[in-house]
């Protein structure tokens, strides 16, 4: 993961709008790692994606349940939150089933414990707290699918 693209948002509403644009690019099969400190906007981003995909339930922090599945006829969203877990603790979460679902999108917060279990072609989004509500979001793609996704998102947001 070499090429870094940078986006920014100045409010939770802008983070949700970015997520809505992002959701419009999803086809199924995408894997996105969301990194950043508590309060950086990761769950806000997941909520915006779910809203834009027309999913009825609104995601909340998945920290206490590890993984939540949301779906409708067209989309399946897996929201994974592995805060404070190790690789050994997440081994039996059913990743094989997630990867077999062609319409599934996997959004993983605190993803390090599953890095070795999922394909390298994934988009990594680092949410960096700046002054006030400003968030710097660094995108790193790990393969052709995630690279195309990052490129399209940047085109839609006039990013650098």
The gist of it:
Helix content is 27%, strand content 26%. It is an alpha/beta fold and 160 residues long.
Please tell me about this protein's structure:
- The protein is of the alpha/beta class and 160 residues long.
- The protein has one domain (4-85, 93-157): Rossmann fold, CATH 3.40.50.
- Helices cover 27% and strands 26% of the residues.
- The chain is built from four helices and seven strands; from the N terminus they run βαβαββαβββα.
- It has helices at residues 12-23, 42-52, 95-100, 144-157; strands at 4-9, 31-35, 67-71, 76-81, 104-109, 123-129, 135-141.
- A seven-stranded mixed beta sheet has the order 1-7-6-2-5-4-3.
- Strand 3 (67-71) and strand 4 form a beta hairpin.
- 36% of the residues are buried.
- The model has no long low-confidence stretch (mean pLDDT 86).
Low-confidence stretches: none
Strand order of the largest sheet: 1-7-6-2-5-4-3
Q: What profile does the largest beta sheet have? A: 7 strands, mixed
How many discrete structural domains?
A: 1
Strand content: 25-35%
Summarize this structure as a short list of keywords or feature phrases.
single chain, 7 strands, 4 helices, 160 residues, 26% strand, alpha/beta, Rossmann fold, 7-stranded mixed beta sheet
């Amino acid at each position: 993961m070499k090429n870094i693209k940078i986006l920014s948002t100045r409010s939770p509403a802008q983070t949700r709008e970015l997520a809505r644009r992002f959701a419009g690019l999803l086809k199924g099969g995408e894997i996105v790692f969301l990194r950043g400190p508590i309060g950086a906007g990761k769950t806000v981003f997941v909520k915006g994606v779910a809203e834009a995909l027309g999913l009825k339930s609104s995601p909340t922090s998945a920290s206490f349940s590890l993984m939540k599945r949301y779906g409708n006829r067209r989309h399946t969203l897996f929201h994974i939150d592995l805060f404070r877990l190790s690789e050994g603790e997440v081994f039996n979460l059913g990743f094989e089933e997630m990867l077999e679902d062609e319409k599934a999108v996997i959004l993983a917060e605190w993803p390090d414990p599953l890095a070795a279990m999922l394909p390298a072609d994934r988009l990594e989004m680092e949410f960096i707290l700046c002054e006030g509500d400003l968030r710097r979001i660094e995108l790193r793609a790990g393969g052709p699918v995630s690279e195309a996704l990052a490129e399209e998102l940047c085109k839609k947001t006039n990013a650098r």
